[in-house]
Amino acid sequence: MSAAPDLDTQERIARICHARPVAWVRRIGGYSPAERWVATLPDGSTVFTKVATTPLVAGWLRQEARIYAELQAQCMPAIAAFEDDPERPMLIMEDLTYAHWPPPWSWRNVEAV
Questions:
Q1: CB–CB of 87/52 below 8 Å?
Q2: Which one of 25, 48, 53, 70 has the fewest CB atoms closer than 10 angstroms to its CB?
Q3: Contacts 24+ apart (CB under 8 A), 65-74
Q4: CA 28 from chain center: how many Å?
Q5: pLDDT band at residue 23, thresholds of 50, 70 and 90?
Q6: Rounded to an integer, what is the distance from CA 53 to the centroid of its chain?
Q7: Order of strands across the sheet with 79-83?
Q8: Between vectors from CA 61 to CA 53 and to CA 24, what angle results, nearest 5°?
Q9: Residue 1: what pLDDT?
Q10: Is residue 29 a contact partner of residue 108, using CB atoms and an 8 Å limit?
Q11: Average confidence (pLDDT) over 23-48
């Protein structure tokens, strides 16, 4: 497993974020085989990035970006950018690494909802 994305992906993220990331963490999991990275920017902030790995995943990322743009709900991560590259679209969003992600649901979570 690579410690950083390929150079093209690094350059795209740096250009879109207007800052060259100083650290990378690969994220495994999710509902698709998209490539996932958390990039730490020089100011200490982080962004979560998904990059398409197949034509099917490219279509899913385009759809995900459209849905985020249409909903813009407070309960959704903020979108920093979407780059609709013909082969490898990239979605850059708020990093929710340290947020609480149920399930499992506690009774406190259920009552809050």
A1: yes
A2: 70
A3: 65/89, 65/91, 68/93
A4: 12
A5: very high
A6: 14
A7: 23-26, 35-40, 46-51, 90-94, 79-83
A8: 60
A9: 54
A10: no
A11: 94
Q: Is 22's pLDDT higher than 80?
A: yes
Identity of the residue numbered 12 = R
* Amino acid sitting at position 45: S
- Cβ neighbors of 14 (< 8 A, separation 6 or more) are 20, 21
Two structure tokens written together for 94 = 């708020």
- List, for residues 81-103, the tens digit of each pLDDT value: 999 999 999 999 999 888 877 77
The pTM for the full model equals 0.83
Mean pLDDT of the region 67-94? 88
The count of other CB atoms within 10 Å of the CB of residue 65 is 20
Supply 22's token pair. Answer: 């100083």
SS3 content of the chain, % helix, strand, coil (to 5): 30, 25, 45
Cα distance between residue 2 and residue 75, in whole Å: 32
β-strand pairing of 23-26 with 35-40: antiparallel
Given a contact cutoff of 8 angstroms between Cβ atoms, the answer to whether 49 and 36 are in contact is yes
